[in-house]
Amino acid sequence: MTESKTQARRILVVDDHPIVRQGLSQLIDHESDLAVCGEAETAADALGQLDGAKADMCIVDISLRGTNGIELIKQIKAESPSLPVLVLSMHDENLYAERALRAGAKGYIMKQEAPENVLVAIRKVLSGDIYLSPAMSARMLQMLVEVPTSSTTSSVERLSDRELEVFRLIGQGLGTRQIAEQLNLSVKTIESHRAHIKDKLNLKTATELLQHATLWVQAEGGA
Q: I need a surface site. Which of 3, 25, 60, 208 has the fewest CB within 10 A?
């Protein structure tokens, strides 16, 4: 780190796509007041770097190998409660932003946003504020003044964080045993999650569940 960057705020970037990490790191390092202090492609790698990186904040994606960003945020907050986390993801903010904030994140921004908006989000979170897009901010304010009903809450939104993760992996074509291995959970636990998902989505068979999950993943962009 050059002398001019010694006072820069340090950021740990967590994303499982190398090209995304590279692009985000270049964007951050181009700013005189910001610097990337580490990169990680998995939750385990990120947690292993927390102490040594001496980060002032983490930027985390939702989709990570072995677990998802929501679970990683919970782990980060358990180990470093004061470390702010910004989620930068391709996943729909309408479904994931509230979950990320509940997990402990201080902001959520989608990857298709302009680079200057990403920098605004980073600096806002570093300053101690919460960052959401104007549209998501308005939606969450509306949610605060409305009583949720079955007509205002989509069926997928009713899934718990873990159920949503299992649902996404089903849609990616993984079987029960593969999901259990990836999430480090028992087959029995995954079967229980599948049963709860079918109940919440009013699906009767495993085939219906697979079809519904596959279509949802395709609509999300396949990630």
A: 3
Helix (H) or strand (E) holding 48: helix 43-53
Q: What average pLDDT does this structure show over 4-27?
A: 91
Q: What is the mean pLDDT of the chain?
A: 88
The burial of 44, by beta-carbon neighbours within 10 Å (0-12 exposed, 13-18 middle, 19 or more buried), is given as middle
The boundaries of the domain holding residue 195 are 156-220
Buried b (16+ CB within 10 A) or exposed e, 119-148: bebbebbbeeebbbbeebeebbeeeeeeee
Neighbours of 30 (CB within 10 A): 10
140 vs 83 pLDDT, higher one: 83
Give the pLDDT confidence of 76-95 residue by residue, as tens digits. Answer: 999 999 999 999 998 888 88
* Residues 137 and 167 reside in one and the same domain: no
Closest CA to 72 of 118, 17, 15, 140: 15
